Amino acid sequence: MSASGGDFMDERQKELLKEIVETYIKTIKPVGSKGLCDKFKLSSATIRNEMAILEHYGYLEKNHVSSGRIPSEKGYKYYVENLMKPKELNGEEMLKLQTIFHNQELQISDTIQECMQIISEMTNYTSVVLGKSSRENALRQVSIVPLENNQVIALVCTDKGIVENKTFKIPETILIDELVKTSEIINKMLIGTPIDEVSERLEFEIKPIISKRIKQYEAVYEIFYDAFSDFTKNSTNIFFSGKSNMLMQPEYDDVEEIKRIIGKFEDESLIQSIESNDEGINVYIGDENKFDPNVTVVKTHYSLNGEEGTIAIVGPKRMEYDKVFALLEYINNELDKRKNE
Amino acid sequence: MSASGGDFMDERQKELLKEIVETYIKTIKPVGSKGLCDKFKLSSATIRNEMAILEHYGYLEKNHVSSGRIPSEKGYKYYVENLMKPKELNGEEMLKLQTIFHNQELQISDTIQECMQIISEMTNYTSVVLGKSSRENALRQVSIVPLENNQVIALVCTDKGIVENKTFKIPETILIDELVKTSEIINKMLIGTPIDEVSERLEFEIKPIISKRIKQYEAVYEIFYDAFSDFTKNSTNIFFSGKSNMLMQPEYDDVEEIKRIIGKFEDESLIQSIESNDEGINVYIGDENKFDPNVTVVKTHYSLNGEEGTIAIVGPKRMEYDKVFALLEYINNELDKRKNE
DNA sequence: TTTTAGCACTGAACAATAATGAGTGCCAGT
DNA sequence: ACTGGCACTCATTATTGTTCAGTGCTAAAA
To answer: Is residue B55 within 8 Å of B13, Cβ to Cβ?
Structure first.
């Protein structure tokens, strides 16, 4: 045996592993020795010997003693870290993403959402964008926008760029002016307060103040309370795209498994756990991720002008890593460009 | 044979059909004659004869010659129209819904969304709320809300109560005041315009006007254009709750079927086709609905103070119709109450 | 006329068995 | 160091038999 572990694989073994991973990604069928003869100009027996070595070190697996090989999680990992080259984006893909980034007026989070939507279409995987969770959002501004017919829109926005609106029908007894005044007071006193503390301060700091100036202060308080509480409830700032894409992948051919994964997608706290603060692009294959042992999560953190969050691609372990990496790298680069502008 | 079709069924046959439908709804197992003996104080042979009659007229079906009976779509339909009594809501359910309706300040569509969310939890089916599609929404108001750092929020709201916001970073060269002025012009000229015609009128009516007053009019135009186009894109004002609930129903135990239904849920135009303008609560069982031959859609239209839309419950054909009806009727009643206030 | 007991029959569901074939490990020979 | 050959393994598929819930029908009882 000429390979021990890790980087002691010889060139041929690396080539072989690479070929097996890529073939399996394409076909989802265990890769047998015969099919590789042509490519390597070797007999199947020789290939089998090499495969046995790769299996011995944990890079390959067999479903049963006489089946072809499939990459193990360790095998995928080695492939991603050492063998894979990010695929070049083709012109069309490039163009689509560029037009989105070109629009400088958009908020970063909107730009990213649009990108991820495109990416989920291009890859057939599921993409996720996680804004900073609400506990880390601080109040930036609250506004009252009057409509006709005693209706108003209450706008709440945070320093991380999240905006929520809610429309209220206000009773005749409340003057819009009172709402506006109250919003101004809130803006003076509570800006910078973490969103999930706003409710409390609203009650103990704002309510006493307006109670002296406004007759129907309870009703006014209720409105702002509602506006904020809705915000806290929707705290999970999660954007999905192509949720069903990955379920359509042929490896998910078992009802229980599909149902399990659907369930996970509905579990917001689990989705939230995808959040990442690490630099660069990180891959979590199978058991490595908290989400589900049968999927791969590729994620990266973004941050620009105060807006920040995590973007992630969720797909089968048999993922086209080269393509996904290329796409995420592209986004990272674009964001870097903007940073240095 | 004593029953011909429709209402010529005798009492016992009606009772029998009712029992079979309700048993099947509970158990999902074909209902055999033996199990019904006790209930009806008859021998299995007699029951079998009656079942044969019901089958002959199309109310029951067999999976194969020697299986128990399951209700046909016609059988469900007859059950819903003639045999079923809406179940009384229990106190807890009542209470939950009442607290939502109690909040008079909320917009109708918000109230309804919250209700349907609760309902999907209570029934384990999927609930859908469809606002009037954007073509039927007319512009009500556009507002510019300034933030610090050269950012603004553009708010677009329609007469049917939909509000969308989008945040922009505006170049130094544009003055916020110019944006506000433009929004005022739009409000003067375009209010009442159907949303999907706004873009056009924006270009041909507004653009020429601001081009005379504003230097960077192109950029200003772009911002409003973006704000509206986003609106048109999200035109489909669809709110889902418990999307996965119904997939968890045990009858969906086939991968292909699950994938098919997931696909349908993603097809916005199909979802849109659920829209209804009919009075009262309508049931579309299996082939009767455009959505999917293996589900039932129960829907009703709501309209109050100009806001209108459709609410629907999507579940298996084997649905707890009595419960679903009770819930939707409750909502309808609450809305009626408000109408007469 | 209505109901029932009895009996032959059906077809799904399950288990056991056999045949097929892709793929393996290993060994002896080049 | 590589290859041809061979025995072996096990998923997959097809085949057969067994069981059993449930049916339709008929002749007798109510």
So the answer is: no
The rounded distance, in Å, linking the Cα atoms of A228 and A230 is 5
Q: Let me know whether B39 and B180 are in one domain.
A: no
Q: Rounded to an integer, what is the distance from CA A109 to the centroid of its chain?
A: 12
Distance in Å from D26's C1' to B62's CA comes to: 23
Model confidence pLDDT, tens digit, residues A134-191 = 778 899 999 999 998 889 999 999 888 889 899 998 988 999 999 999 999 999 999 9
Domain that holds residue A318: 91-133+237-339
Task: Count other Cβ atoms within 10 Å, centred on residue A186.
Answer: 24
What is chain A's mean pLDDT, rounded? 91
Separation between Cα atoms, residue A185 and residue B233, nearest integer Å: 36
Site from B103, B105, B259, B307 to mutate, A interface, most A CB atoms within 10 angstroms: B105
What b/e string do you get for B296-328 counting C-beta neighbours within 10 Å, with b at 16 or more?
A: bbbbbbbebeebbbbbbbbbbbbbbbbbbbbbb
Q: Which of A55-59, A276-280, A325-329, B41-45 has the lowest mean pLDDT?
A: A276-280
Is residue A13 within 8 A of residue A3, CB to CB? The reply is yes
CATH code of A180's domain: 3.30.390.60
* Chain B residues within 8 A of A157 when measuring between CB atoms: 147, 153, 167
Strand D contacted by A244 CB (< 7 A):
no
Out of B203, B233, B263, pick the residue that ends a domain: B233
